[in-house]
């Protein structure tokens, strides 16, 4: 066990995720569905699964596809997501699902897809390679995600008290476009 890997993974992911599109998505889902527990569980489960995938397969995946291709595809996807959100055509923030399990799966699917190829997934791959201790790295990453997502979801549950859903959607759409452009320019 490489003890330095735990705090490094925790801090790197926490700093990277604050204000990240994944957290924005969790915030918007919690605000819309008013089911913070299900959004938290779905988001953390997805982030854990994607991180596990990154630790296990990241090196092999990176050797098959260039990072630039992954970033470019993710950038275009986020721009499309932003445009659809701004245009009111994206159903992720539509009417609330009828059952808690649907909220869980909505959060799991959307957060999981948004995290594939993300800077935190790439950071997880790099940390696992650097320290040679995937279990400790994964532990630090997952605990960090749990801390950040819990703060995000708590804020999201209260967000609609101050802002209309349409305002949240516009803000989310604009930020998705910004993140897409940043991905395309290699930031």
Please describe what this structure looks like:
- With 187 residues, this protein is mainly α.
- It has one domain (5-184).
- 80% of the residues lie in helices and 0% in strands.
- The two termini are 32 Å apart.
- The model is unreliable at 90-96 (pLDDT under 50).
How many structural domains can be distinguished in the coordinates? Answer: 1
Radius of gyration: 16 Å
Uncertain segments are 90-96
Mean pLDDT: 77
How far from one another are the termini? 32 Å
Number of strands: 0
What best-fitting shape do the alpha-carbon axes yield?
A: globular
The topology string of helices and strands comes to HHHHHHHH
Topology:
Layout: H1 5-17, H2 21-33, H3 36-64, H4 67-86, H5 100-115, H6 119-131, H7 134-159, H8 165-184
Attribute tags:
mainly alpha, single chain
State the gist of this model.
By secondary structure, the chain is mainly α.
